[in-house]
Amino acid sequence: MSGAQEKICVIGLGYVGLPLAAAFGQHRQVVGFDIDPGRIDELRRGEDRTRELEPAELALAEHLSFTSDPAEIAECSIYIVTVPTPVDANHTPDLTPLLSASAIVGGVLKPGDLVIYESTVYPGATEEDCVPVLEARSGLKYNTDFFAGYSPERINPGDKQRRLADIVKVTSGSTPEVAERVDALYCEVVTAGTHKAESIRVAEAAKVIENSQRDINIALVNELAKIFNRMGIDTEAVLKAAGTKWNFLPFRPGLVGGHCIGVDPYYLTHKAEQLGYHPEILLAGRRLNDGMGAYVAGEMVKAMLKRGLPVAGARVLVMGLTFKENCPDLRNTRVIDVVRSLEEYGVAVDVYDPHADPQEAEAEYGLSLVPEPGQGAYAGVVLAVAHSEFRAMGSRAIRALGAEGALVYDLKYVLAPEEADFRL
């Protein structure tokens, strides 16, 4: 079967899968599959709750259809798996969604079919964990009857400048011929070009270190922020000054959450420990970044006490819950750590976020978002996410949310140094 005639199925229609399915759906027949019937219904109506695609963009994918019925994907010959790969409460990789998706694909797999994984995994997971499921479910033999590829996702949720087509795509395949087939496939939709890795394991490793590197660099800056805070030095001013050198990396301190940076390092450390190596720098960076929410809450409470404000029973407003600005994604947001830590001090916390889905916040974190913050109601305001709506408010409107003498803690440099009481 020629490449132009092959029908694609994209498994998982979230922040990664939907843009990919829509891109291919402009050129060839594509079936978007998701186990959530509600998600399928909204996409058939041209609605995307992730806000990655506008209705007009979805309409351009004229060859794209949606289903939650595995029987309706059996005619496809290329399956691209884009399901989440989270970690559990113990920071252990949870491959349940990935293995479940593999079982669904295995149930319809045919000789000659190609299965490509995009989900973030540790090196070896595709061939050691997923392929055996495909073989067991299909009764087919790997690299004889069916083939595999790995092309790590590089979607940046909420980023309207760097889209799927604009980001170089790493590709790989289980044989040299399959690697060429996978690479040619992605060249259809990625105008920025591709990088063909030497093997699936190399492509998996490349993905998992991308965000591990960022995690470590942010951890370093978070530690510097703690040091400079004790010195009474503004961290942002220091970073701006250091940034005048050509090779200084422009990282900023903050809460490290989301589905990538706060998760991917644990996949690499998990595999390393299986091999008898205990990572030191990777885990140190994770520990420091995971503790930033408690640090922020502690600094807020200390500042309140210094100002003579009561802590127990005080009301504090946290502005923003999503893991990044101008995006509705609540996955692994570390703002929740600030909220929970403040509550442990006896603080009554209101959370306001115009981008977050209130039902999702309730289901995921047991939080009831306030539809609008009260004017003059708070002893403190924490600017946790730099949504454009918050930037547009300005310092006067933000301060008006607090009572007289209220503190404003700016974690994201939304305000000028003199406009906030203290910054991260």
Structure explained in plain terms:
The protein is α/β, with parallel strands linked by helices and 424 residues long. Helices cover 39% and strands 13% of the residues. The chain contains 14 helices and 13 strands. It has helices spanning 17-24, 37-44, 55-60, 96-106, 125-138, 176-187, 200-231, 235-242, 264-274, 281-290, 292-306, 335-344, 358-365, 388-399, and strands spanning 8-11, 30-33, 64-67, 78-81, 114-117, 147-150, 169-171, 194-196, 315-319, 348-352, 378-383, 402-410, 422-423. A six-stranded parallel sheet has the order 3-2-1-4-5-6, with helices on both faces. Strands 10-9-11-12-13 form a five-stranded parallel sheet, sandwiched between helices. Strand 5, helix 5 (125-138) and strand 6 (147-150) form a beta-alpha-beta unit. Helix 4 (96-106) packs parallel to helix 5 (125-138), helix 7 (200-231) packs across helix 9 (264-274) and helix 11 (292-306) crosses helix 12. The longest helix has 32 residues, at 200-231. The protein is globular. The chain starts with 7 loop residues before the first strand and ends with a strand. The model has no long low-confidence stretch (mean pLDDT 95).
Helix coverage percent: 25-40%
What's the tally of helices?
A: 14
Globular, elongated, flat, extended or rod-shaped: what is the shape? globular
Low-confidence stretches: none
What is the β-strand count? Answer: 13
Sheet with the most strands, sense and barrel status: 6 strands, parallel
* Helical/strand content category: alpha/beta
Could you tell me the strand content as a percent range? Answer: 5-15%
Radius of gyration: 23 Å
Physical arrangement of strands within the biggest beta sheet = 3-2-1-4-5-6
Task: Please state the average pLDDT score.
Answer: 95
- Give, in order, the helices and strands: EHEHHEEHEHEEHEHHHHHEHEHEHEE
Distance between the termini: 57 Å
